[in-house]
C-alpha cells in the first residue's frame, strides 16, 4: 500500500477528531432523524387527502404518484420539510424586505417588540432579585407572588393585557413588549437571586471583616458571582420574550408580525405558510440566543475567566 493511499484515511481520521465536528455530529444526527420522521409523518397524514383528490378527478394513480402527491400538496395537513424550506426562502428572498408578504418584514416587527420586552424584563428581573437578596421581608412576601405570576397561561392573559392597556391608551409596540417583559422577567429574577446568593458564606464574612458596605459587596462579590447565572437566564428570557411577542400579536389582530402571519395562515388553511413562519421564529430565536452567547463569551474574556 502506497503512502498516498494511507494519506486519505489519516486525513479523514483527523477530520473526524476535529472538536467542531465532534460537537456538531450529535446535533446533525438528531436533525437528520427528525427530518426522516417528518417525511414519513407527512406521507401518512397527507395520504388520504391526495387519494381523495385522485378519486374525485377519477384519475388512475400508482403508489409512487400517491407518495409524490403527498410531497407537493397545495394545502397539506402536514407539509413536507422541503415545502417549508421553499416557502421560508421565498418569504425571505422573494419579496422586498418592507413588503407585506416578506418574512423579513414580519420578523422585524416581532423582533422590535421582543427586544424591548427583553430589555424591560431583564431590568425588572435584576431589580427584583436585588430587592429580594437584600430584604428578608421581600424574599418571603415577593418571591411566592413572582412564582405564582407564571402559573396562568400567557394565552389567557394576553387578551386581558391588550384590552386593559388599550383602554388606557397604550397601543402598538408597547403592549406587546409588556407581555414579552411579563414572561422574560421571571427567569432573570430566579437566576439572579441564585447568582447573588452564590458567594460562599466565608467570602461574605471576609467582606464584613473588611467593613465593606452593601454596595461594595454587591460590586466586588455578588455581581461577579452572578454573571454566569445572568447569561444563562438571559438565554431563556430572550427566547420566551420572542414567544410573548408572537402570542401578543394574536389577540391584537394586527397585520404585521410573525403572530399575524400565523393567524392569517390558520384563517385560510395555509399550513405551509404557518410552518414557514414557525421556521422564521426558530431562526430568529437561534440568532438571538447566539448573540447572548457571544456577549457571554466577550464578558467572560474581559473578566479573565476565558483566555
Q: Describe it for me?
A:
The mean pLDDT is 86. The chain contains twelve helices and no strands. It has 307 residues and is an all-alpha fold. Helix 5 (103-134) runs antiparallel to helix 6, helix 7 packs across helix 8 (173-196) and helix 8 (173-196) runs antiparallel to helix 10 (214-252). The relative contact order is 0.10.
Would you summarize the structure shown here?
80% of the residues lie in helices and 0% in strands. With 307 residues, the protein is an all-alpha fold.
Counted by DSSP, the helix tally is: 12
Overall structural class, as computed from helix and strand content, comes to mainly alpha
How much of the residues is beta strand, in percent? under 5%
* Main sheet summary: none
User: Separation of termini?
Assistant: 44 Å
> Any low-confidence stretches, pLDDT <50, length ≥5?
none
Radius of gyration: 26 Å
Helix content: over 70%
- The string of secondary-structure elements, in order, is HHHHHHHHHHHH
Oligomeric nature of the chains: single chain
Instruction: State the total count of DSSP E strands.
Output: 0
**Whole-number average pLDDT?**
86
What is the 3D form? globular
Defining traits:
mainly alpha; 307 residues
List the helices and strands and how they pair.
Layout: H1 3-16, H2 19-56, H3 63-71, H4 81-93, H5 103-134, H6 136-148, H7 154-167, H8 173-196, H9 201-209, H10 214-252, H11 258-267, H12 271-302
Helix pairs in contact: 2-3, 4-12, 5-6, 5-8, 5-10, 5-11, 7-8, 7-10, 8-10, 10-11, 10-12, 11-12
Amino acid at each position: 500500500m502506497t503512502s498516498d493511499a494511507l494519506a486519505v484515511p489519516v486525513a479523514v481520521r483527523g477530520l473526524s477528531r476535529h472538536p467542531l465536528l465532534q460537537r456538531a455530529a450529535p446535533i446533525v444526527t438528531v436533525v437528520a432523524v427528525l427530518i426522516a420522521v417528518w417525511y414519513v409523518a407527512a406521507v401518512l397524514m397527507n395520504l388520504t387527502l391526495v387519494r381523495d383528490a385522485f378519486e374525485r378527478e377519477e384519475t388512475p394513480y400508482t403508489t409512487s404518484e400517491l407518495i409524490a402527491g403527498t410531497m407537493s400538496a397545495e394545502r397539506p395537513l402536514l407539509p413536507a420539510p422541503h415545502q417549508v424550506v421553499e416557502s421560508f426562502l421565498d418569504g425571505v428572498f422573494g419579496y422586498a424586505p418592507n413588503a407585506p408578504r416578506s418574512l423579513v418584514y414580519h420578523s422585524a416587527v416581532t423582533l422590535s417588540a421582543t427586544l424591548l420586552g427583553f430589555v424591560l424584563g431583564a431590568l425588572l428581573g435584576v431589580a427584583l432579585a436585588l430587592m429580594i437578596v437584600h430584604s428578608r421581608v421581600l424574599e418571603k412576601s415577593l418571591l411566592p407572588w413572582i412564582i405564582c405570576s407564571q402559573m396562568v397561561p400567557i394565552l389567557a392573559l394576553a387578551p386581558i393585557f391588550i384590552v386593559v392597556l388599550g383602554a388606557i391608551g397604550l397601543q402598538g409596540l408597547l403592549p406587546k413588549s409588556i407581555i414579552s417583559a411579563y414572561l422574560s422577567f421571571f427567569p432573570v429574577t430566579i437566576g439572579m437571586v441564585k447568582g447573588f446568593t452564590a458567594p460562599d458564606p466565608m467570602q461574605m464574612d471576609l467582606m464584613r471583616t473588611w467593613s465593606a458596605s452593601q454596595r461594595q459587596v454587591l460590586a466586588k462579590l455578588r455581581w461577579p458571582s452572578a454573571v454566569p447565572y445572568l447569561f444563562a437566564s438571559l438565554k431563556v428570557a430572550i427566547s420566551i420574550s420572542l414567544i410573548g411577542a408572537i402570542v401578543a400579536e394574536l389577540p391584537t389582530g394586527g397585520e404585521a408580525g410573525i403572530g399575524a402571519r400565523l393567524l392569517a395562515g390558520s384563517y385560510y388553511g395555509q399550513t405551509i405558510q404557518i410552518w414557514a413562519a414557525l421556521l422564521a421564529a426558530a431562526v430568529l430565536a437561534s440568532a438571538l440566543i447566539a448573540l447572548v452567547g457571544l456577549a457571554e463569551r466577550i464578558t467572560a474574556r474581559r473578566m479573565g475567566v476565558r483566555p
